[in-house]
Amino acid sequence: MPEQSPAIIRFDKVNKWYGNDFHVLRDIDLSVAKGERIVICGPSGSGKSTLIRCINRLEEHQQGVIEVDGVELRDDIKAIDQVRKNVGMVFQQFNLFPHLTVLENLTLSPMWVGKLPKKEAEERAMQQLKRVRIAEQAGKYPLQLSGGQQQRVAIARALCLTPKIMLFDEPTSALDPEMIKEVLDVMIELANMGITMLCVTHEMGFAKAVADRVIFMDQGQIVEQNTPEAFFNNPQNERSKDFLSKILGH
Amino acid sequence: MGTQFQPIAPRPSPVRQSGPLVWARRNLFADWRSSLFTLIIGAVLVWALPRLWQWVIAGAVFQPDPNACQAARGVGACWGVIAEKYRVILFGRYPYDEQWRPLVATLLMVATVVVSCMRVFWTRWLALIWVASLAGFFVLMGGGVPGLSKVRTELWGGLPLTLMLAVLSLFLAFPLAVLVALGRRARLPAIRTISVLYVELVRGVPLISVLFMASFMFPLFVPQGVTVDVLVRVVAGLTLFIAAYMAETVRGGLQAVPKGQFEAADSLGLGYWQAQRLIVLPQALSMVVPSIMNTFISLFKDTSLVTIVSLYELTGALALALNSDVQWRPFKLEAYFFITLIYFSGCFAMSRYSLWVEKQLAASKAR
């Protein structure tokens, strides 16, 4: 379990509000070990997406401390840039850049942020495209691809940062059922590579297969966290039991 | 059970019928309403076309002969006025013997614009071409170098002035508009306020008053002895005016870029300007090509308003050519047709070009 290796992500009493009265994260304490694979689940509006979006500062927290790879996230642009270089993110809606080809989507950040020469950036991009098994589509535009293909490109794009941490924000929720598997397969492969992963998902099969820890959130709080076996077979909290019965019951 | 999936075999599409009769039935006489309109429009054409022919061609006078024109009044057009006055209309008060210079300058400017519209020339060299071409334009027009006598800017006029004002103010207004549009969405309240104030102030006044201010009030604010050329002031006025409108167009495009695009750019570590330049603006601008072209076209025609500060561009030069000439004054209408044709070809070319650009952009986004 977590504590044997040093924490790469640390949340200390983190609070966040949307507007004045929507308290979306409440006293979050969380420590993620290097190489740990975490699945975060919970009902909608429970703050799970907000939680992982705080890790690369797509959302700002108002109270508490978030530390990523030894860098504290504050209003300091340098610190934020530093963290973002190490954190790849995959979105529910893919968010590929539609005016750029697949290859250009992948080389953009390595070239402009990482200052890599074009040739090297393209080599790296092709390597990642091969990893997600989509190298033959490099010259196409994102909208010419299927949803599953787009999401795999998005994963490859995040991997081109050579991140230490990968965040997945409901990566399969916008996909047709027959495309979910191709994306999950890629994610399972990644998980086996030893990269630190935080994944917001309701794919319980995925959680069982790869997660070191499952975190259940409700109303902005971490309600329960445990190994997948323990969490699925023997949930401790009423809310977790209720949630599991709903998503596993059908 | 046991039934197997049987795909429906593909069939060829129905044979296309063609020929003039089929076309006419489909497009002109599809039902009684379209038949009715076809007949009405046909009747109007039968009535109007012969009269138009009579006025434009058959009864028209083509020689620059005021007496013949006078005789043909009411019967035919007097195209002779153009033959007589075209040099004043095209070049205004520019010294008569030197008028090859504005001619070459105009051709240079047109050629540069045409070249910039073509994809093969979209390289780094294009900026250099523009610098050279603008320098060439101003040297030709202004002179003051060995071999070319000096011509004061008050004497510039006609088509080259129209083109120069339009091209230069568009060039300057576009980046300004993008900055103001970004400014209105900036995080810093000061920048946001300045951008909003600028847009609202400029949009709230007519172009004529902006030109007036640029021309007559601006000199009051600069120290004594410093003079800013009237052309510079007018270009500045046009630029500021058009940039305010364009900024709002660009802002519309910016708003249409989904939030996820910004987040993806952020998550990839792109800085603000990188994200704007590489991700946001290309998408935002490609969405507003038609309205930006709209602004371009209206600016091209709005240059005619600089007459009020005594610059005789195309429209002003026309008035200059005819107002003081009793013999030819009655045939203003024909002269106006002439400059209408010039304005129209400019605007039509722009609107066709905008369509072409849209097609190019659509091709790169094709599903």
From TrEMBL, chain A:
It holds the Pfam family ABC_tran. Residues 9-244 form the ABC transporter domain. It comes from Hydrogenophaga borbori. It comes from the Bacteria. This is Amino acid ABC transporter ATP-binding protein. Keywords: ATP-binding, Cell membrane, Membrane, Nucleotide-binding, Transport. The keyword ATP-binding applies. One of its GO terms (molecular function) is ABC-type amino acid transporter activity. Belongs to the ABC transporter superfamily. The keyword Cell membrane applies. InterPro entries: AAA+_ATPase, ABC_ATPase_HisP-typ, ABC_transporter-like_ATP-bd, ABC_transporter-like_CS, MetN_ABC_transporter-like, P-loop_NTPase. SMART domains: AAA.
